[in-house]
Amino acid sequence: MMRALFIFIFCSINLLAVKAGVVKGVVKDTTGQPLPYVVVHLKSSAYGVNTNLGGAYLLELKPGTHTLVYSYIGYLPQEKTVTVTEDKQLVVNVTLKVNPKLIAEVEVVAKGDRDKGREIMKKVIDKRDDYYSRVENYKCRTYQKSSLEKLRLEKTAADSLKAAEQARKDSLEAAIKENDIDTTSKKYKKQKKKADEEKASMESALRDKQLNLIESVSDLYFKRPNKYKEVVFAYHDYADNKQFDGRGASATVEYGEHEIAPVYYSASNPYLLISDGASMDFNFYKNQLDVPALCSRPLLTPASGSAFLNYKFDFLYSFVENGKTIHKINVNPLFTSDALFSGSLFIEDSTWAIVSVNLNINRTVLMYCYEFRVIQDYKEVTPGIYMPVRREFLYTIKEGKQDIICNTRIDHSDYVVNGDIPKTVFNDEIKRYEVDAFDKDSAYWLTNRTIELEDKEIKYISEVDSLAAYYDSPEYHHKTDSIYNHIDVWSFLLNGVPHRNREKGWDFYIDPLISQMVFYGVGGYRHRLGGSFNQEFKNNFLLETQGNIDYGFLNKDVRGKVGVGLTYYPLKFVRTFVRFGDYYDMVNNFSSLSTLFSRSNYVRAREISVAQRMEIINGLFGELILEHVDQSPITGLKLEQWSQQLFGDLNQPMDFQRYIKSEIRLELKYRFKQKYIIKKNKKIIVGTKFPEVRFFYRKGIPNLFDSEINFDYIEAGSLDEMKLGRWGTSNWNVLFGAFVNKKNLRLLEHKYFRGSDSFIFSDPVRSFQLLGPTVSTANSFMRLNYIHHFEGAFGSKVPFISKLKITSAVGGGTLMVPDANFYHQELFVGLERVVRIRKQLFRLGVFAVTADNNLSKAAITYKFGVSFYNSFTRSWSY
Question: Is the pTM for the entire model greater than 0.85?
Answer without folding.
Answer: no
